[in-house]
Specification:
76% of the residues lie in helices and 2% in strands. It is built from 13 helices and 4 strands. It has helices spanning 11-37, 44-69, 76-108, 112-117, 119-139, 164-200, 205-208, 213-223, 228-247, 256-267, 269-279, 282-308, 316-330; strands spanning 2-3, 6-7, 143-144, 156-157. It has a two-stranded antiparallel sheet with strand order 1-2. The longest helix has 37 residues, at 164-200. This is G-protein coupled receptor 157.
Length: 331
Amino acid sequence: MAYGNETVVYFSEQVVVLCSCALSFLGSSLIILTYIIWADLRTTPRRLLVFLSVSDWLSAVSYAYGVWRVFRTDSLDCIAQGAVSTFANTSSFFWTVAIAVYLYVFIVRSNQRAADSLVWCFHIVSWGVPLAITVAAVCLYKIGYDASEVSVGWCWVRIHAPDRILWMLLTGKIWEFLAYLTLPVLYILIKRHIHIAHAALSEYRPILATRPPSQSFSSMADMKLTLIPIIFIVLRIWSTVRFILLLVDSPARQHPVLVTLHGIGNTSQGAANCIMFVLLTRPLRTRLCAALFCCSKCRADSQDAAQRLLPGQDASTPREEDRSNRVGTDR
C-alpha cells in the first residue's frame, strides 16, 4: 500500500479519479457554455456559479494531469501543476462562500443593491487571496512533491518542507475549515428565512401561481444555489479526514478506499454543480434537449438527402433538371 512516507496510488484509483476529473471538466464547461449562449439566464447568482465553475474547471484539469503523471520528484511540471491546483482549489473555497454570502444578503436582508455591490469584493478576495498565497508558496519553494500524503498523485506542499503543516493550512485547509463553519450558518439562515416567507405568503400563492413559467423556473434555479454548501461539504470531507489523520500520524490515511474517496471528492464539484443547476433545471434541460434534437434532426435530414441521390449523381443534377423543366414550361 505504501512504503516510507509515500502513499501508493493504484491504477484503479487513477482510472476512477481521472473519470471524475473528466466529468467535472465537462460539467463546468457546460455551466459556462449555457451562461454564454442564453442571455436570459444571466442572473447574478448564476454568474457567481460560472466563476465557481471556472475554478472547478482549472482544478479538474490540473488534478487530472497530476493523477495521470503520479509525480515522484519535484519536477518543473510538478511545481506548475501544484501551483495551478492550489490556486484553483483555494479560489473554489472562496467562491463557494461568496455565493452563500450573496444569497444571504439578497434573500435574508432583502437588499439586492448591497448584494450586487459585493460582487467586486468577491472578485478581489476570491481571485486575489488565492493568487497571493500561491505566488508566495512557489517563491518560497513550498510547492512540490508531497508523496500523496494528502493528495492522490498530484503535487501540493513539499513533503520535506519543515513547516509543511503551516503551508497546508495556508494553501487550502484553513479556508476549508472556515468554509465548514461559515456555510452551514448561512445556509440555515437562508432556509429559515425562505420557510418564514413562504408561510407568510401562503394566502397569495394562487396569485403567484399565475406568473409566467420562465420566472418561476428562474427563481427555482437561483434557489438551488443554496445547495452548493451541502455539495461542498459532502465532497470535501474526505480530504479533511486524511489531513486530520496526517496530523495524528495514522496510517489509515493511506487506505485505498479513503484515497479514492478523497480523489473523487476533490475533483467532482464541477460535475455535481452541473447535475444540480443544468441537468435538473427544467428550462436548461429543455433547451439542451431541443438543441440536441435539432442537431440530430439536421444530421438525419442530410443523410436522407444523400441516400436519395442516384449512384454517380451529384447534388447539382436535381437543380439542373429543375432548371430544364422550367425552361420547357416557359416554352
